[in-house]
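User: Hey, quick favor. My workstation is busy. Could you predict this chain's structure for me?
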Amino acid sequence: MDNLKNQSFSQRTEKDWQAKVEAFLKGKRIESLNRDTYENIVLKPLYTKKDQKPVPDYAGGSDYRRGIYPLGYLTNEWIVAQELSYESPEELKEKLHEVLKKGQTAIAFSISEDLMESTENLSSVLTGYYHQYPLAINIEGLSGEVLSILAKMAEQDNQAENVLGYIGSDPIALFAEEGVVSKEFIGEWKKTIIETNRRLPNLQTILINTETYHNGGANAVQELGIAIAEGVYFLDILQEDEMEIEQILAKMIFQFSIGNNFFMEIAKLRAARILWNRITELYGVTDEARKMIISAKTSTFTKSIFDPYVNLLRAGNEAFAAIIGGVQYLQVTPFDFLTHSTSSAERIARNTQLILKQESHLGTVIDPAGGSWYLEQLTNDLAEKAWEYFQKIEGQGGILNALKSGWLQQEINTVFEKRNLDLQTRKQSMIGTNFYADLNETQSNPLQSKRNHFLANRDYALSKIEAIPVRRLTEPFEKLRRKAKQLERKIGSTPTVGMICLGELKQHKQRMDFMKSFLAAGGVKAFESKPVFSIENAKQFILDMNTSHFCLCGTNEQYESEGKAILTSLTNEFPERIFYLAGLPELDKQAGWQEVGIKQFIHVNTNCYETLEEILADMEVNTVEETKA
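Assistant: No problem, here it is.
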């Protein structure tokens, strides 16, 4: 025992670690492990004490990166604000009654024009609850109507001081979403903010909602820069109407969507507080007024229709990041919201938060991210780049002019195109979509969007701008899967590519498995042959298969020793068939393969989406031609 107690590890330096890593990398330099993010931040493989920079000693101090409360969630728990879906006011009222008994701690639902058909609808839903629980509602283009009803109820019940939380709207995000701008709407919105401040003094009504930009494909730097630019815009226009700046700040709440890059999202929320502290410090307000209140929602941009249960894991990861990042309100999207949210999925979404709070005890640790060399560096990098981006927006004349000119839309679209290309080439993986797709799962149709066009349906003078589209990363592959299913209904079987497997299993298995995963992403089945040792084996396989598309799978050595001869014979006998090769031959050998009939080399850098789109189009053409014949 004494020997065990006295054992210790020998001292190692960073140079020792670097030498060990470079030996493992077989001559490559350590810099080859660096990764670039969509924010143009370089992530190193190792962070050390050298990366440490001075940070506040405790939460609630200095720049607020570590949170706005000294004891974190110990004294100020985050609010469970699940947005309820409903078909009628009666259903909404019943749901609200149930969820408030089962762990929900805020009144949260979307405001639809159907709900606002009668003032009694909203009143009946809120009666008995609106002054007992905080509110967490984005009222989009209906701020005047909703807040007027709520204020009247509160005044009649003598409960105006007890209405807490937020019922807010973001006119700039609404303009970006609908593709129009209205000065009249801004004027009405300002009047509503000022009037509600008088009637409901403790309710927050100014929402800075970056969800629109996030769902368009924006990166974290853009989301932060836009959020700060919007905040500055609202501070300036409301001060014009002689509203005190600290009153304005007390009415503000920032809403962020939380994506699937765990550490980036934590750093995003921490950087947001640093940036807002810097802005409000320049306005000369008190420390208390500089605190940023954050409402977070797990991303819809990162969710998929196929393999929807994977969305459970994504949402759990995103909720975890939001809590570590220090939010005040949190909504977790149900895993099946893209098709039709079931009561079971809604319950699981709510319980995800409750597990993180009560079983994982995230509420009992004050700023668990604090002091991490990596996270602190990432937070600083994000804050610096986001400040630069905010200055670029201001250089365009502010957030509204940046939208009017189309500059901001183009900036966001550029990032989205990078994300989309990485997904199509499978550099970025979405499990169940472009990796490990299940061809046997039952396909569900996406729920038709019931988006309200608040501005277009009103008598406002509107100026058109380019709208920021609502997107999801997985949509291109979902379209391929639906196309494959349509083709299956035409031909009576799953679209298939035959795998000509050269030699023994150990020789072709790696590339055969790669092709199975590759093709499944587009709803195409890979059907493997028995081990092919001769030209006759390959010919018989093609004769037995009811498809015109085939792919050779084997090792590079096999391709050279026997593959080319087999392919030459097959293309001579079956000239109408289409052949692919799994892998990428050396550059000087590629032309030779193409001469003997290879249409395309399919390998790890191939654009999966474009290749599958072309395969399905070929199959559809062949089906039409066979039908005509």
